[in-house]
Amino acid sequence: MSLLLNVILSLAFVGALGGAVQYWRVQVDAARRDALQAMAARRGWALTVTGTTLGRAGTLRLVPRGGHPWVLEVRPGAGPERGPVTDYESDEPRWAEGTLVLVAARLDHLVEAPSAGSDPIEGTPGRLRHEQALRDLLGRDLARLAATLPQQEAPEGVTVFAEGPLARRLDLQDLARALQAWTPVAKGPRGVPILVLSPEGMRLRLRHPVQRADRMERFVDLALDLARLIGP
């Protein structure tokens, strides 16, 4: 009888603990949502959240209420091919010369030196190491894009892929300094911002979801600063 009572008491304790944890999560989510709404209202932005279910984050979308349009989306992961990201996108500024990918980290720091006598052709371990490092640096979809672009000379601490010679109006030193001023939240390559310019516009990506209002505001400000540096 005492054993049964102990089991009942243990189950009751576990249930109460689970309820307390769930209540705490709801309170934390509500506080975070309130902070995001307050930040958006202060900056003149509009915030929407869709697809939220119990225990699963939805897609957060932030847009300005006036001025030049842009959109910030924080998306949860969608399988191994598409992990969680924070994306800023705008149709301005554009880069008419083609596509450019600039990331605030060095690719060569992620690639091991090839073994002696290895032949750097497709399918060799050296080639595979380079492809893996590119995925580690940029994520799968942007790695596929960068793989089609020549790697360019770049300032210390950044990596650049671009079609053809870089335009003179694009000051890589200024862009590199702005990107490197970002204080990472996530560790490793996932924490560094990735800038993509193309004839369709500008994108700034973090390969993790930004959840806090102060960090989200800082990320948008970084994107706006980069847009000003790039110019029309």
UniProtKB/TrEMBL annotation:
It comes from the Bacteria. It comes from Rubellimicrobium roseum. This is Uncharacterized protein.
